[in-house]
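Researcher: Good morning. I'm working through a list of sequences from a screen, and I'd like to move beyond sequence-only analysis. For each chain I'm collecting a predicted structure so we can compare shapes side by side. This is the next one on the list. No need for commentary yet; just the structure.
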Amino acid sequence: MNKLFTISLVALAIVLTSCGTKGSKSVAMSDSLATKGVAYSGKIAFVRMDSLMQGYGMYIDMRDAFTKKQSQMQSELENKGRALEREVGDYQQKAQKGLVTRYQAQTIEEGLTKKQQEIVAYRDKVMGDLSQEEAVMINKISESLMAYLKEYNAQKLYSVIFQTTGGTPILIADPAIDITSEVLVELNKRYLVQTTDAQSKQTVKKTK
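Model: Good morning. Structure tokens for this chain:
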């Protein structure tokens, strides 16, 4: 398993950009920032999505948990592969020494082929599961961000809030309209409260 999945900031930016185009599973723009009948200020702002996500507690915790799961899955696959290699090597040594009959060799080879196919199938399943889990996490993070931005802009009333990842799509902008740090502070305050509450509830359940 050479290719490992990572929580992609680019994918997250795409999810946020596409909100309102995916039906009920996404946060519609009319229900988030572009609320009808609101007297917006005419001001604009932007957030640096890469900086925002890399400092967001939810992203950090999910990324760490996901990375651990990746490592566990890769170790498991590597162990399965090494075990199969040992079996193949043991069989080859016996065959070279004439310690197996032709029928035994045929049976062993069929068994080894079957094990190889099972490992490949398991690898494909693991990679598919991880890819799906990553997509779910990206959606969860984007929904959390959009939910906060809705509340944030109910007070600020920015007419537009842009997002940028790396140097795009905003190339040059007044630093005064960069609200990344302000949003990040409030996001992490909210996340800390949520995680603390969740831990408290878990502790109560264990003590009952």
